[in-house]
Amino acid sequence: MPRTPVAVAVLAMCGLLAATPRAAGEMGPCQPDKFGGLTCGSGVGAARVIEGTLSPSKRLALAWRSAKGPPTEDPVGETEIIVVRIADGAVLAASKGMYWNTGEARANRLDETATWSPNSRMLIRSFSSRFSTDKVDLYAFGRNDEVTGPFDLLKVMDSAVRTALRRRVKDEQKYALSISNDPAMTVSNGGIVRAAIMMWVPKDGPERNYTVTVRVIRGAKSLDARVVAVVPLRQ
User: Residue 18, Cβ neighbours under 10 Å: how many?
Assistant: First the structure.
């Protein structure tokens, strides 16, 4: 049976759409909102950029969103923390989270922090609750924003610091790890991470403080890290 011109046109359009790649999870450009922040897209599945997480290049940032509602409302249950490209709202990486901030209200005693290398090619995402730092994930980005990671940097740092802590205390399992924001953690273009870490017994104390230096080992499609120094600080 011969195909009509309309049928041929529809088939051609379907083929074009199938052949045209679309950035994964693209929501639309991140635009200024009425609370002085940035919101990517609108409605359910839209995301709001987390304050202070914009990369030095101004191209990428961390954002939060909910699968059950827009970022203008308090979420129900878990949220998703994403690495988003500001220009088009493309989702480059995503993981489960708890943080949220609508502009009018925010999660209580929960914080998401982004530590960027000066060239915006490395990102360390840190999540902290009331008494500890609970997640430290490392990402690396290529020229076209291709992502390597996440790599669990917290596991590497926690193991090294606890080894040092056992030389000073007998009950190291009672201590929680908290990364300081003063001074803030840094990562160089070459992948040298420096962090001030407090090991402490929540509420009761005492505390032990360390400066930790980590070297990131970046492969073509992989990430690794080695602790090169754990220096105890005087109390």
Answer: 8
